[in-house]
Each structure stands twice: as C-alpha cells, then as structure tokens.
Amino acid sequence: MSETNGSAIVLLSGGLDSATALAVARRDGFDCFALTIAYGQRHAAELDAARRVAIHLGVVEHRVVPLDLRAFGGSALTADLDVPKDRTTEAMAEGIPVTYVPARNTVFLALALAWAEVRNSFDIYMGVNVVDYSGYPDCRPEFIAAFEGLANLATKAGVEKRGRFRIHAPLIQLSKVEIIRLGLSLGVDYGLTHSCYDPSIDGAACGRCDSCQLRRAGFEAAGVPDPTRYSV
Questions:
Q1: Whole-model pTM over 0.85
Q2: Distant-in-sequence, close-in-space partners of 87: CB < 8 Å, separation ≥ 6
Q3: Pick from 47, 8, 7, 24: nearest CA to 128
Q4: What confidence score (pLDDT) does residue 211 get?
Q5: Beta strand pairing status for 7-11 and 31-38?
Q6: Residue 211 vs residues 66, 163, 196, 207: alpha-carbon distances, Å
Q7: Are 121 and 9 in contact (CB under 8 A)?
C-alpha cells in the first residue's frame, strides 16, 4: 500500500497489458487515475478501448491528453511506414522494430509524473513487458529504474522529500500467458481491449502484426477464448 494518499497514476493505452496493469494497481489498493495519450497513433481504436477499460475497472478519473508525435514520425505507428506482418517469433526478437516510437515511454512517463506531482501521488503504473520480445529499449527494467531516479531528482516534490516517486511495472517479466491469466483473475474483460497496430477502418484487428500474433498466441497458450475481433 502506498505511503501517500492512496492514489496512483496509471498509463492506460487500451491494450491488453495496460488494462492488466490498471487491474494490478486496483488490487494493490490504490485509487486509480488513468492517463491515455492520443499521440497520433495509426491504431487510434485503442483510445476508445482505453475509455471502455477505464469505465469497466472503475477509475476515479480518466484523462485523454493530445500530443501528436506525428510531428516527428520515425515509426510505423506515427508515419507512412508499413507495419511488419507475419513475422516469426525469432524475427520479432531481432533488433528494434519499426513500430518503436522514438522516446514514447519517456514522454508518457514524463506526463504521468507531471500529473502525479500535481495530485501529490507518488505511484505510477505502466504495462511494459520484455519477455515476449525485447526490441523496445524503453520497456527494459534499466529504463524503469533510470526514470524513477530521474523523477525524484527532477520534481519539486522529490527535492522537498514530500515522498518518493515509484514507477511500477508489474508485468515486466511476465509472459503473455501469465499476463492474461493474471488479468482474468483480477476481473479484466479483454474483449474491451485493443492491441492491433494496423486495424481495419471498422476497428477489427489485422491478426498479422507482431502485437496481434503475440496476443492470439497468448490466449491460445492460456487455454481461454480469445475475444478479439480479427479481420483475418
């Protein structure tokens, strides 16, 4: 339980992992304030998913903040680049994929930190994970630890020792199967979530991008029905 006022900021994308992280924060006894960033992502269907999940899991407040990272591009999620499809698990693990959005988690955590400081909250949750594939540099434990140190150096609340900011990444070492089982045990309705990087116009998941393949394989390995609506 937090040493502060019992509230936590949760970064909520609307995907499977962030929904599970939100459920964990609730389990840990926090009043949850969900933060979603509309960053110009091509898979904007996740914004509607985030709203559904926030309602379903009973957050105190849900804020959607616009911050258009298309101004910089550099990613298949924010620029006119093809999203990789039909890749093997081995291929996913090689190098940093083009779906990496430059500095995204650094930017998102900075925004969550700002809201946390204003609210006098010292706990921030996010659903990063390194087990299924470790291509994103801002999903590693080293990054989380480094940002936590920065948070306590770069804020008035930290300098005045009013509390210590903690970045919680409860899923970081879990497989997709373990994440799904954890979420189900905490009452997450995964039918409300959205993970696809390249959905169709009507919001159906492509079934072929890295995220769809990992999600589909996770449900299959967990032995539970996959509630995702796929186009293929």
A1: yes
A2: 210, 213
A3: 24
A4: 94
A5: parallel
A6: 23, 36, 6, 8
A7: yes
Interatomic CA distance for residues 70 and 80, integer angstroms = 10
Give dist(CA 215, CA 225) in Å, integer.
11
Distances (CA, A) of 3 to 37, 78, 169: 27, 38, 18
The set of long-range contacts for 206-213, using a CB threshold of 8 Å and a minimum separation of 24, is 206/83, 206/85, 206/230, 206/231, 206/232, 207/231, 207/232, 208/85, 208/86, 208/232, 209/83, 209/84, 209/85, 209/99, 210/84, 210/87, 210/92, 210/97, 210/99, 210/133, 211/15, 211/99, 213/87, 213/92
How many CB atoms within 10 Å of residue 176?
A: 22
Q: What are the pLDDT tens digits along the chain (232 aa)?
A: 334 449 999 999 999 999 999 999 999 999 999 999 999 998 889 999 999 999 999 999 999 999 999 999 999 999 999 999 999 988 888 889 999 999 999 999 999 999 999 999 999 999 999 876 667 999 999 999 999 999 999 999 999 999 999 999 999 999 999 999 999 999 999 999 999 999 998 889 999 999 999 999 999 999 999 999 999 7
Cα separation, 162 vs 127, whole angstroms: 26
Residue 77 carries which side chain, given as an amino acid letter? L
Structural domains of the chain ordered from first start: 7-222 (3.40.50.620)
The answer to whether the beta carbons of residues 59 and 103 sit under 8 Å apart is: no
